[in-house]
Design goal:
The protein has 330 residues and is mainly beta. Helices cover 9% and strands 34% of the residues. About 3% of the residues have low confidence.
């Protein structure tokens, strides 16, 4: 994954208990590497694609093995009978480890291993209180509404509220997508599963996301802050709202290309992309998934791609070496 700096097992290891999943990942030798492990909840959630259904994965890269769930390396805080798992529908939750077939249950819990390509980013302070009713996430660079709107709203009204919000001299607030919401979750906390030092009134509630699912247009995703479950709700139901602004750089760190020091961000992007650390001799080309060329140029530090339709693109960088970075427009 050129965004997160992780390397993933393409075909998961199949159905197994959580105990065997740890053993499997620790002993896996694949692609010439032996440092594989089970992913964290955030890592596992990062590869879900909510434009796809059953599985909510890009099956061009991840083989469909008909799994119901995928194990992570994290037990629920205070309850070692439950483990955080992502699911084929695009959610994440704390599931009893006894539910998998190998433990006597009826569900297919699979193990997909991951390894670090780049050194994980370490920051001293996850959040910064900006003193103006907003909080900056120093990992994603997203800016959050510190005090959520605790008046329950249906989904359409939640979107309207976010788009009309004026806070901290800014009016570009919006409803967060599911991955942005999940980035606030702290699996080491419960009731609520969020940092109450920076979000003191977040409480235990359901919070709307902007994410709809293609085959279920009447539903939208939400985040429950009792434990941190992500699932779906009817859009006519009423949930709470926490607004966000800015473009997430990748819900982890800036998108640093692995073959050079060139840094492309934000990713996903909505209009402009920025390019840092180019030496001035690189030639850039932007293609879509079918190979259609949309842009070519040299000595680029910023470019406006607001005219592009939403989707997946590939930025090809030709310098001393040629390589591609996958970027997403939303």
């Amino acid at each position: 994954d050129n965004i997160t700096g992780l390397m993933w097992q393409q075909v998961d290891g199949g159905e197994m208990t959580i105990e065997n999943a740890f053993i499997y990942a620790d002993n896996l030798v694949l692609g010439g590497y032996s440092d594989w492990r089970l992913p964290t909840p955030k890592e596992s959630f990062s590869i879900l694609n909510h434009q796809n259904i059953n599985p909510a994965l890009n099956t061009a890269y991840f083989t469909n093995t008909n799994a119901d769930y995928w194990w992570t390396n994290t037990y629920q805080a205070g309850d070692n009978t439950k483990v955080w798992c992502t699911n084929a529908g695009g959610g994440i939750g704390n599931k009893p480890k006894s539910e998998t077939i190998s433990a006597g249950g009826i569900k297919k819990f699979h193990a997909r291993a991951v390894r670090d390509i780049t050194t994980p980013t370490v920051i001293s302070n996850h959040f910064t209180d900006n003193g103006d009713g907003t909080v900056t996430d120093n990992l994603t660079q997203l800016i959050w509404q510190k005090v959520p709107n605790l008046s329950a709203l249906i989904w359409e009204n939640a979107i309207a509220y976010a788009e009309s919000l004026s806070l901290a001299s800014a009016t570009d607030w919006r409803l967060p997508n599911l991955k942005e919401l999940q980035s606030l979750n702290d699996e080491s906390l419960t009731n609520p599963s969020a940092n109450t030092v920076f979000f003191p009134t977040i409480g235990v509630h359901n919070y709307w996301s902007s994410t709809s699912v293609q085959n279920q247009p009447v539903n939208a995703g939400f985040w429950n802050t009792q434990f941190g479950i992500i699932t779906l709700s009817l859009k006519t139901a009423t949930n709470y709202v926490i607004c966000v602004k800015g473009n997430s750089t990748n819900l982890a760190v800036k998108s640093i290309d692995l073959a050079s020091n060139i840094c492309v961000f934000p990713n996903p992007f909505s209009s402009k992309i920025n390019i840092e650390n180019a030496v001035g001799q690189e030639y850039f080309e932007l293609y879509n998934q079918t190979g259609q060329l949309f842009f070519s140029g040299k000595n680029i530090t910023q470019h406006d791609f607001s005219y592009l339709t939403n989707g997946v693109y590939f930025l090809k960088i030709n310098g001393e070496k040629s390589y591609k970075i996958k970027i997403n427009k939303n």
